[in-house]
């Protein structure tokens, strides 16, 4: 029996609900784990996804919860050591951490890329000494988006997707794609 994939709206609502449930959870808080586990179970039951995971890590320990299955054919459960892609969902998590560091005074949004990643962004009109963290967060740095690279895009669509869907890249590999292209217009950011 096949199950239709849920709408993006349904998955988004599920993700928001799960994020709210996780927001105040500590790794040592057993009662909160029960709430998160209920949210996972409900998301799988109501959202149509075959399985979901959540993990909480902090200085008090680690907690892993799952619902549904990792493999619909065998019924194998999700395991804590498994990896999964979160794609563009990484952007708000990264931005949140950067903004927290700015609020703590550990960096400034007006710091340049060169200050934190010397020599990484250069070439083809890209200059890490003029691009700020604020530019990166606002998507106004002018650095080419590696997701728009024709060679990389070709691997992620059509028949090539099956062959390349498990390809992995280091952050350094992805960052090198952007400056290899011509710079775009840089916004005032």
What would you call the quaternary organization?
A: single chain
**What does the main sheet amount to?**
2 strands, antiparallel
Order of adjacent strands in the largest pleated sheet: 1-2
Roughly how many Å is the radius of gyration? 20 Å
Cα separation of the termini: 51 Å
Shape by Cα distribution: flat
SS summary, helix count = 8
Q: Tell me the β content.
A: 5-15%
- Structural class given helices, strands, pairing? alpha+beta
Secondary structure: helix percent: 40-55%
The overall strand count is 4
Question: Would you list the SSEs in sequence order as H and E?
Answer: HHEEHHEEHHHH
**Average pLDDT score:** 78
Condensed summary:
The protein is of the alpha+beta class. It contains 8 helices and 4 strands.
What can you see in these coordinates?
With 189 residues, the chain is α+β, with helices and mostly antiparallel strands. The chain has helices at 8-23, 30-47, 90-103, 113-116, 133-138, 150-155, 160-164, 171-177; strands at 51-58, 61-68, 122-123, 126-127. It is built from eight helices and four strands; from the N terminus they run H-H-E-E-H-H-E-E-H-H-H-H. A two-stranded antiparallel ribbon has the order 1-2. Helix 1 (8-23) packs antiparallel against helix 2. The longest helix is centred in the N-terminal third of the chain and has 18 residues, at 30-47. It is flat and about 50 Å long. Residues 1-14 have low confidence and may be disordered.
């Amino acid at each position: 029996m096949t199950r239709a994939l849920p709408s993006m709206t349904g998955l988004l609502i599920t993700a928001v609900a799960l994020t709210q449930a996780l927001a105040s959870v500590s790794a040592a808080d057993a009662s909160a784990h029960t709430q998160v586990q209920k949210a996972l179970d409900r998301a799988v039951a109501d959202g149509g996804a075959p399985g979901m995971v959540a993990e909480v890590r902090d200085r008090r320990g680690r907690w892993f919860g799952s619902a549904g299955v990792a493999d619909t054919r065998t019924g194998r459960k999700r395991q804590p050591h498994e990896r999964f892609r979160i794609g563009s969902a990484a952007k708000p998590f990264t931005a949140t951490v950067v903004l927290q560091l700015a609020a703590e005074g550990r960096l400034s949004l007006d710091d340049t890329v060169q200050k934190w990643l010397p020599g990484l962004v250069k070439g083809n009109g890209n200059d890490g000494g003029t691009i700020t963290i604020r530019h990166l967060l606002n998507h106004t740095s002018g650095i080419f988006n590696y997701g728009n690279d024709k060679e990389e895009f070709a691997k992620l669509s059509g028949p090539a997707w099956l062959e390349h869907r498990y390809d992995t890249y280091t952050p350094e590999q992805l960052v090198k794609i952007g400056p290899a292209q011509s710079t775009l217009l840089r916004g005032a950011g």
